[in-house]
């Protein structure tokens, strides 16, 4: 954070406030970790905080300190609207446009509180009084650590906060293997471990609690893998029927898209997952090297994200979606093969 942002935030937080903290729809480890960590920190500073999620989040994150107190907009609609309307400050974490919160967008657009954005995705919208945006950061959780440290409160990071921040950094960096993982990231993680973050336990909770049905779903996804050698590209499809057959639960497909990038010479990996309720195919894009899936998703699939990780959607049927996707690849062949 820069000097002006630190001063402005210190001023806003100088007296007790009613604060709402909001992650994006379908929150992942970074979204849940950052919102819970910030909530714990602000509560220790004497503020009244509520974490308000647009919808539910995966079971493998529900062990996190404070997770049971998160209000789900779909399930606790009246309470969530009330807390947003009453909030004097609204922190939005791990997203930078109201389009990322689904049906919750209208409530945020009509809110009277001041917004503070904390996010590491590209091209932030201009809705916040304070916009802390840094695309060079590994994760929003690393940004929350930096915020707390910049406010002079590093000593307030206890075991609960450390576990939350560690979880978000670990999951958003692919266990510290992605390009955005810097030497600073490792120094932050070292400090979190010194403050009580249990790296072994966190890894077990996140990665080692699979159900048999999830592993069977992974097998189905890998069976559906298609390799387009000419474009160094691989894609996976999962239909609603396949999800239902293997008793899909929220979070079960987390990380599936990354299997494409484990193949030799593959630089672009994609997964298309049907959501019949919303009438769309949700798409995750991953890349290795300099190929920007953020631009690809923004240009063609109403999405966006990071250079090497982004999301999008398609309202076309599966085969039309695949045909359209494949038809785009020739114009990117040079970037994908050189």
TrEMBL record:
Domain DDH: 18-169
Stored InterPro entries: DDH_dom, DHH_sf, DHHA1_dom, Oligoribo/pAp-PDE_c-di-AMP_PDE
Protein name: DHH family phosphoesterase
Short name of any one Pfam family annotated for the protein: DHHA1
Species assigned in the record: Maribacter cobaltidurans
Span of domain DHHA1: 245-330
Top-level taxon: Bacteria
Taxonomic path: Bacteria, Pseudomonadati, Bacteroidota, Flavobacteriia, Flavobacteriales
GO MF annotations, alphabetized: nucleic acid binding
């Amino acid at each position: 954070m820069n000097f002006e942002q630190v001063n402005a935030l210190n001023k806003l937080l100088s007296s007790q406030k009613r604060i709402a903290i909001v992650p994006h729809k379908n929150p992942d480890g970074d979204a849940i970790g950052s919102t819970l960590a910030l909530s714990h920190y602000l509560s220790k500073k004497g503020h009244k905080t509520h974490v308000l999620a647009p919808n539910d989040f995966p079971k493998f994150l529900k062990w996190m300190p404070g997770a049971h107190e998160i209000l789900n907009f779909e399930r606790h609609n009246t309470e969530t609207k009330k807390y947003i309307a009453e909030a004097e400050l609204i922190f939005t974490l791990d997203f930078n446009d109201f389009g990322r919160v689904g049906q919750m967008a209208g409530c945020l657009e009509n809110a009277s509180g001041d917004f503070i954005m904390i996010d590491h995705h590209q091209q932030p919208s201009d809705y916040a009084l304070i916009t802390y945006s840094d695309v060079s950061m590994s994760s929003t959780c690393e940004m929350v650590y930096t915020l707390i440290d910049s406010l002079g409160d590093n000593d307030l990071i206890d075991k609960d906060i450390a576990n939350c921040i560690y979880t978000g950094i670990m999951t958003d960096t692919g266990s510290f293997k992605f390009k955005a993982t810097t030497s600073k990231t490792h120094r932050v993680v070292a400090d979190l471990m010194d403050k009580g973050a249990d790296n072994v336990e966190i890894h077990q909770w996140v990665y080692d609690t699979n159900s048999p049905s999830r592993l069977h779903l992974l097998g189905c996804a890998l069976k559906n893998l298609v390799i387009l050698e000419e474009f160094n590209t691989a894609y996976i499809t999962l239909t609603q029927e396949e999800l239902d057959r293997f008793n899909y639960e929220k979070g079960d497909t987390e990380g599936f898209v990354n299997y494409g990038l484990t193949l030799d010479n593959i630089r672009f990996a994609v997964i298309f997952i049907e959501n019949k309720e919303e009438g769309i195919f949700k798409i995750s894009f991953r890349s290795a090297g300099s190929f920007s899936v953020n631009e690809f998703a923004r240009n063609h699939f109403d999405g966006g994200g990071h250079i090497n990780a982004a999301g999008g959607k398609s309202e076309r049927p599966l085969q039309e979606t695949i045909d359209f996707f494949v038809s785009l690849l020739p114009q990117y062949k040079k970037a994908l093969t050189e």
